[in-house]
Write a structure and sequence with these properties.
Helix 8 (about 135-155) crosses helix 12 (about 235-270), helix 9 crosses helix 10 and helix 11 runs antiparallel to helix 12 (about 235-270). The chain is of the alpha+beta class. The model is unreliable at about 175-195 (pLDDT under 50). Strands 1-2-8-5-3 form a 5-stranded mixed β-sheet. It has a 3-stranded antiparallel β-sheet with strand order 4-12-9. A two-stranded antiparallel ribbon has the order 6-7. It has helices at about 15-25, 25-35, 55-65, 75-85, 90-100, 110-115, 115-125, 135-155, 160-175, 195-215, 220-230, 235-270, 270-285, 295, 300-310, 340-345, 390-405; strands at about 40-45, 50-55, 70, 135, 315-320, 325, 330, 335-340, 410, 420, 425, 430. Helix content is about 50%, strand content about 10%. The chain is globular and about 65 Å long. It starts with 16 loop residues before the first helix and ends in a 6-residue tail after the last strand.
Length: about 450
């Protein structure tokens, strides 16, 4: 006999109460639900059944063991109209096929081979900075990481097109809200005509990138591999464009967001920043970092790791069961929204001592044992981020490259707030660039 009851959770005492609370402050709402009702909870946002999982064994069951019984949430499906049906959105056999095609470009050998390009892009970007100038560090990092994606994954300098791609993705981030199905609002996918024109310019920029590579094929970068798959009949031109869009936009947005929060935390934690600079001076002694330094710069890597604990770019992940599903004696109906929140999980005191503090040393082997599946900045299961290794190398090497020469400080009085949309963005990072005298 199938279960019919739901786990405990908050109730809608008036219409859309929960949906509106999630719209106003989704992270605080989800954290409050876990704190009040436990690790497996149920609530309704409008007509939508929502289940929140916050225990590692539940997460393993849904996202790994029974992953084939779930698909991406309805919010992700809406994003298909904006970013296409690339690896981030595709389902089933199509997803498996595309992942098999893309995965080799992110193996250890190819990832480490990109280290010189990552460092060179960082050094070149710093040439534009001036001591004492004020910048939005988040936007600086978005432009830098997008340039890196172009050179490493496509073998091209796409700096002229970065404005189109950056502007377009900002429009998508504003328009796409993973919680909006709960409100059952009638929304246009593209918003204003201006937003739609940004999408068109993005498509034109992507087509130019593909055409440039076709004119000068190398056979070594990811884009060349994707074009070869089209030539071999393994996928069509639309799929090629969708994959390029996904790699461009998702590839730069998550890393730049993580780096932005890292500089924010360093600026507000002088003792951590001092230890970070001491390691750079001891290990690098004034020279640019290289791939082998990734293993030597242990504190720098831990700084980046800890920043993604406190501010995971992907702060919530959703799945939808394709049929009625039973978990721990409770019913999860077909079509429901099943959520995990890495952000909520990362602040659980059962897994982390003093979770509100920025403590990179908690990742030292001899300090604190982090339980499995309590740290999920790259997701989990068969859809775990394919670029995890690249993101860790890129983030750590950029921290080392920029940190050797610069010490960004938050502008006095600038209040940074969480903006939890597709990624956990800041509302801007106004910082003063202070050049370091080693």
């Amino acid at each position: 006999m199938k279960p019919t009851s739901f786990p405990p959770g908050p109730k809608n005492w008036y219409p859309l109460r929960i949906a509106l609370a999630m719209q106003r402050d989704p992270i605080s709402f989800l954290a409050g639900v876990v704190r009040t009702y436990g690790d497996f909870t149920h609530f309704k946002g409008g007509e939508q059944h929502v289940f929140l999982l916050n225990r590692p064994d539940y997460i393993r069951q849904v996202f790994q063991v029974d992953a084939d019984k779930f698909e991406k949430s309805s919010g992700s499906k809406r994003a298909r109209a904006l970013i296409g049906d690339g690896l981030l959105i595709s389902e089933g056999e199509k997803h498996h096929r595309q992942r098999r095609l893309i995965q080799p470009s992110f193996n250890h050998r190819k990832v480490t081979a990109h280290a010189p390009t990552i460092v060179d892009c960082g050094l070149t970007h710093m040439l534009k900075w001036r001591d004492g100038s004020q910048v939005d560090m988040f936007e600086e990092l978005r432009r830098l990481t997008l340039t890196i994606i172009g050179k490493t994954m496509f073998g091209l300098d796409i700096e002229k097109d970065t404005g189109y791609v950056l502007g377009d993705f900002s429009s998508i981030v504003r328009l796409f809200d993973s919680m909006s199905p709960m409100l059952k609002k009638a929304r246009t996918l593209f918003g204003s005509k201006g937003d739609f024109s940004q999408v068109l310019m993005r498509h034109q920029a992507v087509l130019r990138i593909i055409e440039k590579r076709r004119e000068n094929p190398t056979g070594e970068d990811l884009l060349s591999a994707l074009i070869a798959a089209v030539d071999d009949g393994a996928m069509d031109e639309k799929q090629l464009r969708d994959e390029v869009v996904t790699i461009l936009e998702a590839g730069h947005e998550t890393t730049s967001t993580a780096l932005g929060w890292t500089w924010y935390l360093l600026s507000n934690n002088p003792e951590v920043e001092r230890k970070f600079h001491e390691e750079l001076e001891r290990v690098l002694d004034g020279r640019p970092p290289d791939a082998e330094d990734f293993a030597r710069l242990t504190y720098t890597v831990n700084v980046f790791t800890e920043a993604m604990r406190m501010y995971p770019p992907v702060w919530v992940i959703g799945r939808t069961p394709t049929e009625d599903y039973e978990l721990d004696g409770f019913l999860i109906p077909k079509g429901s929204l099943v959520l995990i929140s890495p952000h909520v999980l990362h602040y659980d005191q059962r897994h982390y001592k003093e979770p509100e503090r920025f403590i990179p040393d908690r990742w030292r082997d001899d300090r604190e044992t982090i339980p499995p599946l309590s740290y999920l900045p790259f997701g989990y299961g068969p859809r775990r981020c394919v670029g995890e290794g690249f993101a860790m190398l890129e983030g750590s090497l950029l921290l080392a490259t920029l940190g050797q020469n610069w010490r960004p400080r938050m502008v006095a009085g600038h209040i940074v707030k969480l903006v939890p949309l597709i990624v956990l963005r800041p509302n801007g990072l106004q910082m003063i660039l202070n050049q370091r005298n080693r």
